[in-house]
Design brief:
Layout (H helix, E strand, L loop, with lengths): L10 H13 L9 H26 L4 H53 L3 H4 L2 E10 L2 E3 L2 E3 L2 E10 L4
Helix pairs in contact: 1-2, 2-3
Length: 160
């Protein structure tokens, strides 16, 4: 006796559930390259199997229809993988660029703090900022647009 006869789960529902789980997996579950390759393989395999099943079922069990369904499923799986990988690469690059930007800002403020005068010396010096207009120029085929630079100048106070 088959004890699983009363438990009938549609293969289409199983394939749809598996596809939903694989497509909706987030960055935390696919962090490494190995995990990504495994996910890509599983997605393609599930889509190919689902396509073959649907092709055979809708094509009255003919092998040609099953093969055609498998081919469509394979293409669908690879398309899903392509867009999933592309989104992960873009998210990684955006985070990397943000991290670089934050590191540069942090180094700027560290450097600025290191060059700041001690409290007892601040009374004898004043800080000034001067805007310097930089004209547009072209040198060696490189065109530079006109801009304004701000220069910080620390000088002794008058009368000190």
């Amino acid at each position: 006796m088959n004890q699983f006869k009363s438990l009938h789960i549609s293969p289409i529902r199983t394939a749809a559930l598996l596809a939903a789980v694989l497509v909706s997996s987030g960055c935390s579950s696919t962090g490494g390259g190995s995990a990504s390759r495994t996910r890509n393989f599983a997605t393609t395999a599930a889509a190919t199997a689902a396509g073959a099943y649907i092709g055979a079922r809708e094509g009255d069990g003919k092998a040609r229809n099953a093969a055609l369904g498998a081919a469509v499923g394979f293409v669908a799986g690879e398309t899903i993988n392509h867009f999933s990988d592309k989104a992960q690469r873009e998210a990684y690059l955006a985070g990397y660029e943000k991290g670089q930007s934050d590191a540069v800002k942090q180094q700027y403020w560290i450097s600025r703090e290191n060059h700041r005068q001690k409290d007892d010396l601040d009374d004898d010096y004043e800080e000034g900022f001067y805007e310097i207009p930089i004209p547009a120029s072209e040198r060696d085929g490189v065109r530079r647009e006109a801009t304004t630079r701000v220069i910080r100048v620390v000088m002794p106070k008058e009368g000190s």
